[in-house]
Amino acid sequence: MKRSTLLTLGAIGAVLALFYFLTAARATEECTMCMEFQGRTNCATASGPTRDEAREGAQTTACGPLVQGMNETIACGNTPPKTLQCRTR
Fold first, then answer.
1. In what order do the strands lie in the sheet with 29-37?
2. How would DSSP label each residue in 21-60?
3. What band does 18 get if pLDDT is binned at 50, 70 and 90?
4. pLDDT, tens digit (0-9, with 9 covering 90-100), for 42-84
5. DSSP-derived 3-state class of residue 80
6. Averaged over 27-46, what is the pLDDT?
7. DSSP assignment, residue 78?
8. Mapping DSSP to helix (H, G, I), strand (E, B) and coil, where does residue 79 land?
């Protein structure tokens, strides 16, 4: 295998490791949330360094497919979740 190929693979591996460290390694809380909005339901799971950040990420992700436009995004974000389960990872 060429030296340039090995260096390229090493650089890609380093970038992936850095990406993992900056995102998933700090995430100690995980929340799964189901949102019901305008008669439709969607569930999502998100993780974060705090329970509030994990909850917010799950709610944003769950509302995404249910809304169209900023007004509905805000309305869905202000709707209480249908189900919410959080745990420490």
1. 40-48, 29-37, 83-88
2. HHHTTT--EEEEEEEEETTEEEEEEEEESSHHHHHHHHHH
3. confident
4. 999 998 889 999 999 999 999 999 999 999 999 999 999 999 9
5. coil
6. 94
7. T
8. coil
